Amino acid sequence: MGYTIAEKILAAHAGKKEVWPGEFIDAKVDFALGNDITAPIAIAEFKKTGFDKVFDKNKIALVPDHFAPAKDLKSANQCKVLADFAREQKIKNYFEVGCMGIEHALLPEMGLVLPGDLVIGADSHTCTYGALGCYSTGIGSTDLARAFVDGKIWLKVPASVKFVYKGKLNKWVGGKDLILFTIGNIGVDGALYKTMEFCGPVISGLGMDDRFSMSNMAIEAGARAGIIAADKITKAYIAHFKRKAKFYQSDPDASYEKVYEWDVTNLEPVVACPHLPSNTKPVSELKDVKLDQVVIGSCTNGRITDLRIAAKILKGRKVKPGLRLIIFPATQKIYLHAVKEGLAEIFVKAGGVFSTPTCGPCLGGHMGIITEGEVCLATTNRNFIGRMGSPKSFVYLSNPAVAAASAVRGKITHPGAL
Amino acid sequence: MIIKGRVHKFGDDINTDDIIGAKYLVSTDAKELGKYCMESIQPDFTQKVQPGDIIVAGKNFGCGSSREHAPLAIKGCGIHAVVARSFAAIFFRNAINIGLPFLEMETVDKIKDGDTLEIDLTSGIIKNLSQNEVYKTQAFPEFLQSIVSCGGLINWIKAEKKKEE
């Protein structure tokens, strides 16, 4: 009887020979993360425990990325809680504005999370790092407080579900479309409390940025983790990091609760319509959706590959008058790349704004709130009611190519139609 | 532990943005968060809640973000328990960790808005006093019971550490 990657990683971190779906384990984490929304509660709870030192100052990251640079006085206070705690506990990986990036782009970029790790983060999109072949999962603030104490987490071992993608991807179709297509098929609770494992020839052909987009949205299907086995592309991505990684593969006789197999050769760019990520349609079916705003960025699609795609479309073109285009790179490194490669210039000349890294607009925090009746197309991950502002506004989700083309036309547009 | 209260009924996939909008995440105080619970989908919800009331919902309750502010807001507005067909995983663990009682029940459709329920958390038995019905649900596994009976994860850690000493 074999095991899946997730089961192997969880067993190794619980000090067990094997673990089974449904079993409760108490496991040691390699890395724990909190942000300016979730860490203040974690820090307050940690202080209640009576412990005065965190388990390991090198294995914790505090990233003020959601409402930072601070959007108002209350946010400034929350950010300060992180800064003070980091100083007091000598936490190495505290990222002040200037070093800060969106956590789920920043941690992999810095080599803080590696294949084979068990990572927890008080942010639901912590599942992003599964793209590296680690077990990475979103938890709550009190969980993080407990991890601060002893570096451990209680977990119920999830069953695994396998997703096999075959065929050849069309132009303008990438990781974002594959995951939206998947969520559209199985629903927002289609992988509730499961580990999703993405594999097949299409996944092998994806670069890391596309893989991160896929794993990032595993939570939108209810999953605990979204794992892609580490391969030569992963190895190249982590090659310059010193810490040793562990490469796990699922056994051929591992047990999956379900296996989905899709030929995605004819897949066209996918758009999720209001108000659920599962409410998907091929872009060509959305004929006349007029837009007030387009947002390109976030932990889902704010990486350099995403910006290059958007720039390719926006080069020499102009944003439709009256439409707001907001582009926010996920990290400072990506920002600098975009400047050096001339992408920033393309965006500004097209009539877009090029922002500092922040989660801001994605969760209706700041830097692009939409009001009653407004419609936004975003490369982000959620389109719940009121997600980006007014409960009477509308959010559509897509890949960066569709977003850029739509910004030019002022309505949802297939990039091939320009 | 027995919880008795009136039912506020919700549908499927109630997400954490519905439960507490991101603009309110600049507070960590349950009472303050409680003022805005369910605001975007039911603006008058908090005015209708009497302390001790119960939320009954469909599948995937609490999907979306990891914000612990969501169960805190529910607790803060006076709700004493949540019954749903299923819970999203992070909401599930947050509710355990902060000590918000909840139960999973397949046949939530039987319960109507405004019904009065009496919930026995230890046995998992729910009595519908309005309809004179009894529903048997799965009580928590032993491991989770141990966290809940300590009053949440922080107290559980303290107790565990004491045992070690």
- Low-confidence stretches of chain B are none
| Structural domains of chain A: how many | 2
* CATH level 1 name of chain B: Alpha Beta
Taking the sheet with the most strands of chain A, its summary is:
5 strands, parallel
The whole-angstrom Rg of chain B is 15 Å
Kindly provide the radius of gyration of chain A, computed on alpha-carbon positions and rounded to a whole number of angstroms: 20 Å
Corresponding CATH superfamily of the largest domain in chain A: Aconitase, domain 3
Helix amount of chain B, in percent?
A: 25-40%
C-alpha termini separation of chain A: 53 Å
Q: Name the average pLDDT of chain A.
A: 98
Please report the total strand number of chain B as a whole number: 7
Description:
The complex is a heterodimer of chains A (418) and B (165). Chain A is of the alpha/beta class and 418 residues long. Chain A is globular, with a radius of gyration of 20 Å. The mean pLDDT of chain A is 98. In chain A, 31% of the residues lie in helices and 19% in strands. In chain A, strands 4-3-2-5-6 form a five-stranded parallel sheet. In chain A, α6 packs parallel to α8 and α11 (304-314) packs parallel to α14. The mean pLDDT of chain B is 94. In chain B, 32% of the residues lie in helices and 19% in strands. Chain B has a single domain (2-164), classed as Aconitase, domain 4 (Alpha-Beta Barrel), CATH 3.20.19. With 165 residues, chain B is an alpha/beta fold. Chain B has helices at 16-19, 30-34, 45-48, 69-76, 89-98, 142-150, 153-164, and strands spanning 2-9, 54-57, 81-84, 102-104, 116-120, 125-128, 133-136. The longest helix of chain B is centred in the last third of the chain and has 12 residues, at 153-164. Chain B contains seven helices and seven strands. The A-B interface holds A 24, 37-38, 40-41, 44-45, 48-50, 66-67, 72, 74-75, 77-78, 121-124, 126, 138-143, 145-146, 149-150, 154, 188-189, 192-193, 219, 222, 224, 276, 363-365, 382, 384-387, 391 and B 13, 15, 17-18, 21-23, 25-28, 39-41, 59-60, 63-69, 86, 88-90, 93-94, 97-98, 141, 143-144, 147, 152-154, 157-158.
